[in-house]
Amino acid sequence: EDLLVSQTCGYPLVLGLNGAVRVLGAFNYAADGCDGALYRSYVVARSNEQYRTLQQFRGRRAAYNSADSHSGYNAFRALVAPMASHGRFFAGAIETGSHLNSIDYVLSGRADVAAIDCVVLQAVERDDPDLFSRLTIVTSTAPTPSLPLITHGSASDEQVALIRSALTEVAEDAGIAELRGRLMIDGFTPLEFSDYIGCIQMQHDALIAGYPVLA
Fold first, then answer.
1. Whole-model pTM?
2. What is the overall mean pLDDT for the chain?
3. What CA–CA distance (Å, rounded) separates 1 from 67?
4. CA distance 64 to 200
5. Among 147, 166, 164, 150, which Cα is nearest to 28's?
6. Cβ distance 114 to 72 under 8 Å?
7. Burial, 108: exposed, middle or buried (Cβ in 10 Å; 0-12, 13-18, 19+)?
8. Quick one: three-class SS letters along 76-100?
9. DSSP string of 1-47?
10. Paired residues of 117 in beta bridges
């Protein structure tokens, strides 16, 4: 009950936080790949890579930030699953610890492809255009609601409504427009836990396809 507002990832939300927290909603982001509260990941490779479709990266190496990440792992696995054979598609998959590390792994040749949150990738393009120019976008994952904002699980409907109202004000406050612009926050959309069921559906689809892990 000490938790007022925090932000998590949609995948761990649906895996283990149902009942422990209540979903408030998600920020809308002004980034390529976002549509209101929806976002996606872009699968990136080196710009000098001869291959241009994900299918052509069979037998190559993938990087991912962490196995509990929706944007870097779960959505990526769902995208690859229909192309996998006997539970494999890549020669290997390496956990890097962050999206930026995954980009570094790709550019250094330790990996060949990685799925990067579109908001992170937009920030890289803005803040380090030289680094961004060394990447090429191969494809994108299916859209899902962006990172959920949450409060404690015993919050009343009235408390949730008050917090959502405050978040809406923050997302529209002209006094912090510069800060919001830096964070690419372009609004707030109230959402429920059920809006994130697509994350667990992606896991389910990969399991049904015989592709339980990114490999």
1. 0.95
2. 97
3. 28
4. 18
5. 147
6. yes
7. exposed
8. HHHHHHHHCECCECCCEEEECCCHH
9. -----EE--HHHIIIIIBTTEEEEEEEEE-STT-BTTEE-EEEEEET
10. 41
**Token digits of residue 144:** 């899902």
What's residue 179's pLDDT? 95
Give dist(CA 27, CA 167) in Å, integer. Answer: 9
Within 10 Å of residue 215's Cβ, how many Cβ atoms? 15
User: How many CB atoms neighbour CB 180 within 10 A?
Assistant: 19
Considering only the C-alpha atoms of the chain, give the largest distance between any 2 of them, rounded to a whole number of Å. 55
d(CA 21, CA 6): 10
Average pLDDT in the 4-28 region? 96
Q: Which residues contact 177 (CB under 8 A, 6 or more apart)?
A: none
Tokens of 58: 């069979």
Rg of the chain on CA atoms, in Å: 18
Dihedral, CA atoms, 207, 196, 104, 110, nearest 10 degrees? 0
If we measure between CA atoms, which residue out of 203, 205, 207, 208 comes closest to residue 73?
203
Q: What values do phi and psi take at 106, rounded to 5?
A: -65, -50
pLDDT surpasses 80 at 92: yes
Interstrand relation of 144-145 and 113-117 (parallel, antiparallel or unpaired): unpaired
Q: How far apart are CA 215 and CA 211, in angstroms?
A: 8
For the chain, what percent of residues have pLDDT higher than 70? 100
- Sheet-wide strand order for 21-29: 6-7, 149-152, 21-29, 185-190
